[in-house]
Amino acid sequence: MPIVVTLLVVLASSNILAATIDRYYLLYFSDRAWVNADRALSTQFPPIIQSVAQPYDGIMESIGWFVWLETSALDPGVVKFFGPTRWRRAVFCKTEFTAIPTAPHAGQQIVEINNWRYAAPGANNSCDPDGNFGFPLAPVRWTLEDRITFNAPVRRKALDGGEFDASPMVVLRAGAPWVTYLWGYRMGLVESKYDWDPAHRAKLPDDWAVFPTSDDNFKLTTLPPPWVEGIVSEHVNEEDFPNQPGGQYFYSASAADSEMLDRLPNWRRTGNSFKQGGYVSVCRFYGGANGGPNTHFYSASDTECNWLKGVSFLAYEGQTFRVNKPLPLAANAPAGTQPSCPAGSKPLYRLYNNASAPGKNYVSNHRYVTSRATVDAAVAIGWLDEGVSMCVPE
C-alpha cells in the first residue's frame, strides 16, 4: 500500500508546532497589571502564584506580588521586566528594566550593563522613584553586567501536580549564577528558583548587600483553564486496511490536512473530533518510514516521548498540538481509579487495536476520543481501553 504510506508521511510533516518561544514571555492581566497594559501580550487566564518559603509562605496572588512586570499600549510589543517587586526589595533596585525580546528563540542571549541603587535601612533616601514619599533618591551605587539566556522549554509541575511547559530565563549576575525565572506557555512568568551559591561571593562587589534566597522562590499553584487553539479531527480508512477492526485511524490537527484527506476516496471523517489546547505539547511518532508499523502515535508524557525516541523503527516528527496532562492520582487511590483533568479540561481516552496480540494480522493503531460510548463500541470489536491519556478543552 505505497499510496497510503506516502500520504501519511506527507501529513506527518505538517502542523508541527513552531520552535519560537514568544508565547511563553507574556504579562498576564490581573488587578495589579500596569494600567496601560498591552493586551496583545496578555493571557485571558491569570495564573495564581504561591510563595514557597518564609516570610511570604502561603501568599497566593497574581504575579504582581512577586515581580515587577509592565507592558504598555504606548510601547507595544515590549514586556518590561524589573525583577523582584518594590515591597519585596524596597531598599534595593535596578534603575533600568530588561526588555524581553519580541520573539525570543531558544538559546538567545542578551547582555545588559545595569545601574543599581541601595537605600540602607534607616537612611533618609529611597530606592523607588515612584514611591519615595518625599525622600531623595538613593544614589547609584553599583554597575553590574547581567547575562540573560532564554532557553528551550522544559516540563514543570504546579503545586497540585498539573504539568506545563516552561521556558527557563537564566540570569547570571557579574558572572555568578543568580536566578532562573520560568515562563509558562501562554501563562507568562509562573515560577522562580534562586541559583545563588556563596562560593561565587568574590564575583560581586564587597559591599553588595542582597542575594537571592529561597524567600524569593514562588511556584504556580494550579493550571488556569486552557486556551482553545483549534480542532483535531478523526479520519478513518477501511478500504486499505480491511483486516483491522474498524479500519486505520488518523488525526488531523490542521484544516489543510483535513481538506487533503477529504479529497481522497478511501478516507472519510468519522464525525469524532476534540478541541486542542493546553499547557503541554504532544509528541508525534511515525513507524512506516523506518520499517515499523504504518501508523502514528501521540503522547503528552515527556518521559514516554523521550523513551520512544530510542525505538529504532519510530521516527520522531516533532511536537504537534497542545493538551493538558491528567492530574496525578492520590497515593491512596483505589486500583483502577481514572485520573481527573485540570480546570476547563475533559478526558481524552486512548484505545489500542491490540495488533501485537498473537494471531493478529494487521497494523498497530491507536484512537483518541472523548466519548465513553465510542470507547465502549471500540472495545466491543476488540480494541483495548487504555484509559485517560490526555485532557482537552471542554
Briefly, what is this?
With 394 residues, the chain is mainly beta.
Describe this structure in words.
The two termini are 38 Å apart. The chain is elongated. It has 394 residues and is mostly beta strands. Helices cover 9% and strands 36% of the residues. Strands 5, 7, 8, 9, 10, 11 and 12 form a seven-stranded antiparallel β-sheet that branches. The chain has helices at residues 2-12, 255-262, 302-308, 372-380, and strands at residues 49-51, 60-61, 67-70, 79-84, 92-94, 98-100, 108-118, 140-150, 154-157, 163-173, 176-184, 188-194, 218-220, 230-237, 248-252, 268-276, 280-286, 296-299, 315-323, 345-352, 366-369, 384-393. The model is unreliable at 1-7 and 29-36 (pLDDT under 50). It contains four helices and 22 strands.
Describe the SSE topology.
Blueprint: H1 2-12, E1 49-51, E2 60-61, E3 67-70, E4 79-84, E5 92-94, E6 98-100, E7 108-118, E8 140-150, E9 154-157, E10 163-173, E11 176-184, E12 188-194, E13 218-220, E14 230-237, E15 248-252, H2 255-262, E16 268-276, E17 280-286, E18 296-299, H3 302-308, E19 315-323, E20 345-352, E21 366-369, H4 372-380, E22 384-393
Antiparallel strand pairs: 1-2, 1-13, 3-4, 4-6, 5-7, 7-8, 8-10, 9-10, 10-11, 11-12, 14-15, 14-16, 17-18, 17-19, 20-21, 20-22
